[in-house]
Amino acid sequence: MKSDDIVPDLPDEGESEKKEQILIRRLDKIETTGWPASNGNSN
Amino acid sequence: MRRPRVKPEHQPYRSGERTVRIGGEIYGLASEISDPYGCAWAALELMDGSRDRQTVVECLRRRFPGRDVEGVVDTLLASGHVEDADAPVPEQLDARQRARYSRNADYFRWIDLRPREHQWEPQLRLRRSRVVVLGMGGTGCHAAWALAAAGVGAIHCVDPDEVELSNLNRQMLFGEADIGRAKVEAALARMREINSDIEITGEIRRIGSQEELSELIAGCDVLALCADEPRVQGGIRRWANRASAAAGIPWVGGGYAGPQVSVGVFAPGYPCFECFLAEGKERGHVTDFAWPGVIATSAGISGLLVAQGVITLLTGVPEVPPGYVHGVNLVAPDDRVYVRYPSRGDCVVCGRD
Asked: Where are the compositionally biased (Acidic residues) regions (chain A) (predicted)?
């Protein structure tokens, strides 16, 4: 899966309005880890 | 959203001077937020469930005058990392059911990245659903158990056979006292012990044609195909593919070849099982092994992945497009079992040419 940009516009240094926007990007697989695992800390 | 609150499982942390990570460390859930002037972090800190959206916006305006703080807040509210601390508890679930499914609700809240009215929406969808489980062997027992435990509202189990001693290494709904008993009868009794809040029905029956299968699945929301016989006339999976396509019903089929478990999730509008077969054949894959060796773990994973596929189709959580086969290879942990072929335009079932 590619990174999924929820807000497609990156902050642009040349445009003050866009500069204020935040970007939420799903992490790529290589940026995440399958560990540690817990058992939910619940009964 | 009345009182936004960052989901507890999604607690953010600063990953750099101008970046925030949120959603934990799980691929598919975790995100990184670019935060060029600190407003996103400040907004997340304010979203603790004690303030409404407008109060959050006003606090941010005082701190970041002239900035588009409303845009920041609304982006975060739409991200799936935030829930409503004032979300109503649905009347359809009584206190006992809320206690029974409390871990489900927490789980769905965690993995559901679509903003919802409340965290019980996926559970209510399960409750409204009817699933046919065809085949009560190693795969079917685990699938039926998981669907009952998860709270699928109506489950109909179908199998022609009786319990044998050699079934007990993997068919977890049966015990020694069930040997000689119809599988469906024993399975229904055990499932009703597990969850008496749902409708569990069944029939002792061998499906002998695509027409019989069409009749069986009429009115259900998803077919869980946990049988691999009969193999004649194209096989029961082909019947399932065609009967489901004709009725517009999604289906999940699972099984194992010894240590390799594979489960397919299919639905109208997406590449179908026969696209998968044809594409695999062109690539030289042999798809039909039928040796009897199986252990509880491979059967269990098979059935549980079938149930997972069914739950995904019923709830829409997580948002994964159907039309794929996935699984595990127990002799090679580094082997990623995952296939998603494109739709074939010349497919006799789903092709549009």
From this structure: 1-15
